[in-house]
Amino acid sequence: MTSTRRTDTRATGGSPDAPGRRPLPPWGWGAVVLAAFLAGAAAHATGVPAPYLLAGLVVGVALALSGLVATALPRPAYRVSQALAGVLMGGYIHPAALRAAAPSMVPLFVVTVATVLLSVGVARLLERSRLFDRPTATLTTVPGGAAAMLAASDELGADTRLVALAQYSRVGIIAVTAPLVVPLLGPTAPAGAGAGEPHSPLSPRMLHLVDGAAQPAGLLVLCAVAVLGVRVGRRLRLPAPVVLGPMLVTVVATFSGAAHGFRPVGLLQTLVFACIGLEIGLRFTRDSLRHARRALPWIVASTVVVSVASALLAWLLAALTRLSFADAYLATTPGGINAVLATSVATNADVGLISSVQSLRLFAVVSLAPVLVRLTFVRSGRRSGPPASGASETCPAAGRR
Predict the structure, then answer these.
(1) What's the rounded Cα separation, in Å, for the pair 246 and 231?
(2) DSSP string of 119-182?
(3) What is the pTM for the complete model shown?
(4) pLDDT at 390
């Protein structure tokens, strides 16, 4: 198949303007974030789990599909929310959490490998539909960092639009279902332990932006850790460096005792989750859905199959270890790491364990995805053949909207 190297900038994280439509001014984006926050506060009041993530996602989808917002979240806001999410994840990883998780690491590793192999098997089924070439099928199903998969898709000649839609569809499905499913899976940590979101958006606790007593000093340390982390992540060429770099620096600072009291909480944490939800929701545009209208049922079906199979593997893992079903499910679910983090925090799950497992899988998958694609080429001895005649509707010529 002739490579269709195109990039739907809305789907891959860029934010160009749609033709004939002016970009939102800064005050417009402020209004969008405020709307997501207020929607999250309303959802919180009605008892919806992970309310700010879900509200941001719903608001983002509504704005994108209605055409009121035709661009992605501004890149600075996106990067700040990702970096702060990385700091938040790293803040939950400490020696006690790792010691508690150590006996379960081997089973968790086995389940993670099984999830990746399952995804590759589903990719082969997608390829048989003749709507996906081999690189596209592989990168749409592999559970890894969406941004990293999109970067790999351009390099490997996959259809970037389909990869973007599939990856963010899975993230969206997990973001919507996990907060609703996790409370039904079994008990997690007791509420009120301070790990979850504030009990009320009007609570004085919302005015605390970091978890230390000295707020100005904590905020300065938070900024320093986030900026340094992004630079370290890029220097080390980590996958998803804007997330994993700050996470790594936070872990080092926490383990060494060099800094403490800088983890985002209160209003800052809820804004991070609202921005993450908005970023996911704004990916779903009418153009991207129109582009993939024939492939969309296959994308949704493959996502459901992999998610259900992962839940069954998590049930088996919980039965063989001391982990709760909820923690095992969140640690192994093939969703976006930020969406899983928000759900873990909101449901008082073992965030240290979940962040560790999800991060390690992200490293492994991003490293192995190009290898998996190229190995399948070597085994088959050829590139994927031309698509069936109906596939041209799914893979339009470059530049066509």
Answers:
(1) 9
(2) HHHHHHHHHHTTSS-HHHHHHHHS-S-HHHHHHHHHHTT--HHHHHHHHHHHHHHHHHHHHHHH
(3) 0.72
(4) 38
Give yes or no for a contact between 259 and 221, defined as CB atoms under 8 angstroms apart. Answer: yes
- CA–CA distance, 52 with 270 (Å, rounded to integer): 6
| Other CB atoms within 10 A of residue 268 CB | 17
Q: Identify the segments of the chain with pLDDT beneath 70.
A: 1-22, 97, 100, 144-148, 150-155, 185-205, 239, 367-401
Three-state secondary-structure class, residue 210 = strand
pLDDT value of residue 31: 93
Block residue for tokens 């190009």: 370
Domains, the chain, ordered by start: 26-393 (1.20.1530)
* Structure confidence at residue 155 (pLDDT): 65
CA dist list (Å): 345 to 71, 181, 211, 330: 29, 14, 14, 11
- Who's near 50: CB < 8 A, 6+ residues apart? 175, 178, 179, 273, 342, 343, 345, 346, 347
Using CA atoms, how far apart are residues 197 and 237, in angstroms rounded to an integer?
32
pLDDT digits (tens, 9 = 90+) for 53-97: 888 989 998 998 888 888 888 888 889 998 998 898 888 777 776
